[in-house]
Amino acid sequence: MIEAVGLTKRYGDKTAVDDLSFQVRPGAVTGFLGPNGSGKSTTMRMILGLDNPTAGTVTIGGYPYRRLPNAPRQVGALLDAKAVHGGRSARNHLLCLAQLSGIPARRVDEVLGVVGLQGVAKKRSKGFSLGMGQRLGIAAALLGDPRVLLFDEPVNGLDPEGILWVRNLMKSLAAEGRTVFVSSHLMSEMALTADHLIVIGRGRLLADMGVKEFIAANSADFARVRTPDTEPQQREKLTSALTEAGGHVLPEQDGALRVTGLALSHISDLAHEADVRLWELSPHQASLEEAYMRMTQAAVDYRSTTDQKAGLMQPLPPGALPPVPVPGQGQPGWYAPPPPQDGGRPSAPGPYGAPGADVPNPYAQDTPRAPQAPTRPGTAPQGPAAAPSVPQAAPAADSAKPEDPR
Questions:
Q1: Residue ranges of region Disordered (predicted)?
Q2: Most exposed among 7, 111, 215, 297, judged by the fewest C-beta atoms under 10 Å?
Q3: Sign of dihedral through CA atoms 75, 81, 82, 88?
């Protein structure tokens, strides 16, 4: 079990972790959530003895990490997938860790098989992708068959098959009675993996409860109701009936109604009594992501804003008209079409000149020129040879003679 009591860490005048207390119990996957800069990585580093707390204590099984005998055999961790000597092969990297902790070499091959890296065991890790690096880091964490495991963003860079594998691995480790502490920003994945949540914001504890309890405490369920789109009077009739019954009705952008304060069965009865046909009556239960966003919206340090491109554009000159938007412009695969052509000249005023102007067609291929005749010494250079003429149609029988091509 991991236990933190009054854990605090300051860097100068900045407090990264502020009086944090929690417990991570065995037999369950505990998710560690929080916005960027909330202190999750700092907390994990203090658990592993990499950073000294300014105040408070954190213990694993009742002991600080540095006092654990042969700690790698009791605690496994993945904090940085790139913390590997790039010149070593995957097997040699794990073999070095095993020899430092008295772990037999056969265990190296076992964990390489668990994470699926047998085929690249002899390749240097500097050529590994992020997903392969994550697998190697997980293998290092499992090397000592520890009872306590910490993972910081373990699914970054993994493909869907790898994410599913990590999810099942975490659950199986917890089912064996181990303590599993996982930090992640993927709410959908954490909803499928974690049994318990610890949520922090700006270094302070915001929540310490089960996933279902967390969603119920930080979200408001509602019913989604839709009436025939061609009969707006039924929508108004239903809105009046629901409001009179004590419900709170809000219109949504797609024409449906969001109803709170009334059970689905009561909404159905009211619609039947008002003789209103329903196209939809469905419950909406908030996701972990919605509940998390609702709780942490006041603890986010780094927020993005709308890109106000209009403020960066140069003003139009006096009398100029704004450009007309082109359908599809800016979408993937869109290219500017060539200007309309009529005999090699634009048929309408455009960027290449007025109608009828002798302006070359920028999309036409260059006409090949005949090679110039070589000049003899002492003679003046001659001009370029005449371009070959376009083949003419055969002359009629009563024609005098063909026209001089020159």
A1: 309-406
A2: 297
A3: positive
